[in-house]
Amino acid sequence: MLRRPPTLPAHFVALALSAVLLALSYPLPGWGFLAWVALAPAGWLAATSRRPWRLVWTSSIVFALWWVWMLRWLWPVTGPGSLGVAAVQTSFWVAALWATNVCVRRKRLPVAVALPLCWVSLEYVRCVWPWGGFAWFTLAQTQAVWQSGERSYAAGSSGLFGAWGISAAIAAISGLISALILLLSGPVKDAGRTGPRIDSSLAMFMFVVCFLTIPSGCFHEKLKTPSGPLVGSVAVVQTNSPHSNKLAPTVATYEADFAALSALHAEASGVDASHPSPREGPGEGAREAEGSGTLPQPLPGGGESAVPALIVWPETTVPGKFNEAAQVAWERWVNTLPATTPDLDLWQTRAGMARRTKALIAQHGLPTVVGGSTEIESADPQKPITHNSAFLVDGDGQIVDRYDKIHRVPFGEYIPLPAFLKAWVLATVSPYDFDYSIHAGEAVTVFDIHLAPGESPGADDALRGDEAVGDGPRENERVGSTGARPLRPASPATSPEGRGVFRFATPICFEDTDAALCRRMVYDPETGEKRVDALINLTTNGWFGHLPSDEHPGGGLAWRSVRYQHLQLASLRAIENRVPVVRAVNTGASAVIDSTGRIVAMGRPGEAEVVRAELVLDGRRTLYAIVGDWPMRGLAGLTGLIVLWARFTTPTVLRRRGSRAVEQ
């Protein structure tokens, strides 16, 4: 019996059901199991809708509302900007359903094949384009862990083909369910035989799911304990400084933030903040709260040493410019200001922050990764070259090297539009009314720390690399140059002095959502060798959502959700590259993630605290590390050709009807 095509209300019901199931798959509540069936209603609709234009405009409405709601953590930052992001992301989902409809209706391609091909191909494209893409809310993200102690069998398969492999398996299951619904309900009028045709797709995609996702995840889980050497503990400082302190600073907020940072750094170094440190007297701005000088708790995994190998601070922790040349120039300029200059005390405090920060690090004598800004003179004195940077500062308070952020956030860190449109963007979309654009870095910096074997790393054991270039000689280099030194394979390795070498790269904030960039940080593009032992991510996340307050003690739902969503993406990067990932996040959730994606230590969002854990290295490589995104690029290209072939050639049903008419 032939069924009528879906009505207009049926369009909205099917699309709304898929939208709700997808929304529930992400934190919060994070019911990832729903993602495996979420696309089934939309897939059924795409396979049966006889009017492509109706499918397009109804899905545009439903998915636009979905993206606006799921991006509500952007509303406090930029309402118009969040609408723009929602519109761009919606277009990819709508295009995926339209392409599925074209393939199924015109060429009788089984929906269990067409849906995963079109959805995942468009998902890949939106994650890399435009402006570097927006790799948020992928199907694979739903399977990543976001709480300490959780395990995910499906996420383990991202070591094969990256997150795209998980997305393909999820979309395939939804497509298969859509095909089964079509089979059980009978063919649709004028739809040919698209309903019953699931025989070949059933075998193919069950193979994908059973022999790619599940066994790979189980095998990954069986090898969940990395077998590499211990670096020692890493201590992450979660400052929880309100973002308003950066937007509208005062002397009081500068001093309060530095006092809190000083106490947290003392705690991270394993020193009682209420007593003098091993190097000097009481630290400047030490914590005064009762009980704040408590020694750290024993390390997870049986570690006993309270002295970490490395301390990590969040993104842009230090106000002003942190590189030496800019710091000196800033101090000289402030000293020339007359005493009657408005806010002179604010400028003086800001100018001295970089020097006070280095003194704080030297006081405790441990290498520290610091988030700060870089400013380099350019040909135009009015337009210096600025970077969002990560600095490695040694135990003597000297800058060893820095990394300049490569993947900038569109409209957040630069405006990717012609000059004549920037004024409109700054007036309507941007949170600032001035051109705040920073420059992009051009190369990955591999930091290294030498560790004395058999000893807990301390001030004398954490040294700069022999070939590190330092901060001074870099000041007049080309735009974005990081002065990257020759690269070497990752640990286990030893320095010429016989000390172990711990190497790491530092994706900043949004960069840990960029799978290709993180892979390039871990593996040498020329040799394919693993060149770092860990990724250390510096993030602020202070922008997003309603911060904890009297009305929202734990922060708004969106405020908490976005932090867990970001944590999920970092977990996928750990699995893809088989390296531990350390996240230092201003407002949380800071975490230490092992090379199998498990969260071994985690901070509480909205709390100022120190997160510490033993860092276990992993020398293994994944298939994704070898092949990268090439399989996905090939699949996206093939899908594009299939859609074009289906759209611009004679439909299969009409061709067969014509053949029958000729025969008669």
Summed over residues and divided by their number, the pLDDT gives a mean of: 81
Give a short account of the largest sheet: 6 strands, mixed
Q: Strand share of the residues? A: 5-15%
- Helix fraction, binned, reads 40-55%
Number of discrete helical segments: 19
Radius of gyration: 27 Å
Q: State the end-to-end distance.
A: 26 Å
Give the number of DSSP strands: 12
| Uncertain segments | 191-199, 273-304, 454-498, 656-664
Strands ordered across the widest β-sheet: 5-4-3-2-1-12
- Which word captures the global form? globular
> What's the multimeric state?
single chain
Structural class: alpha/beta
Structure overview:
The protein has 664 residues and is α/β, with parallel strands linked by helices. The chain has 19 helices and 12 strands. A 6-stranded mixed beta sheet has the order 5-4-3-2-1-12. A 6-stranded mixed beta sheet has the order 6-7-8-9-10-11, covered by helices on one side. The longest helix is centred in the N-terminal third of the chain and has 29 residues, at 79-107. The protein is globular.
In short:
The protein has 664 residues and is α/β, with parallel strands linked by helices.
Helix-strand blueprint:
Elements: H1 8-25, H2 35-38, H3 40-48, H4 52-70, H5 79-107, H6 111-128, H7 158-161, H8 163-185, H9 199-222, E1 230-238, H10 244-247, H11 251-268, E2 310-312, H12 324-335, H13 344-364, E3 368-376, E4 385-393, E5 399-404, H14 419-428, E6 447-451, E7 500-505, H15 515-522, E8 534-539, H16 557-577, E9 581-585, E10 591-593, E11 599-602, E12 609-616, H17 623-627, H18 630-648, H19 652-663
Helix pairs in contact: 1-3, 1-4, 3-5, 3-8, 4-5, 5-6, 5-18, 6-8, 6-18, 8-9, 11-13, 12-13
